[in-house]
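Hello,

Our lab assistant flagged a job as stuck in the queue for most of the afternoon. It eventually completed. Since we weren't sure the result was trustworthy after the delay, we are filing this so someone can double-check. Below is the sequence as submitted and the structure that was eventually returned. Let us know if re-running is recommended.
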Amino acid sequence: MGSLRGIPVTLIDKSFQKADPFGAPVTTDLDIIVDNVLVAPASTEDITNQLSLTGKKIAYTLAIPKGDTHDWVNKEVRFFGQRFRTVGIPLEGIEELIPLGWNRKVQVEHYE
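-- returned structure --
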């Protein structure tokens, strides 16, 4: 039996550059590659719960590796050649009490 290994996922973060003449922020996208992210299809229960609570249809659940310090709240991510947006706040467990290499999970919806 082989060990579990995730895929690289691109997390899109915004970087504030300056303000335009009207005072609105001008940002640029920063592509951050996060390696070893587990990707699993969302369960029927997760899809139903999130749809009834927020009106968003969850497509996948991502398991984020331990030690990752990036902000995953309301961010765009890319994997499998498609774009997704994170939904809700990532659920996080205590690193020392979780046996494998991932301690957070975040749900994503398809984003166009």
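-- support follow-up --
The delay was a queue issue, not a problem with the job. The result is valid. The chain has one helix and six strands. The chain has one domain: 7-110.
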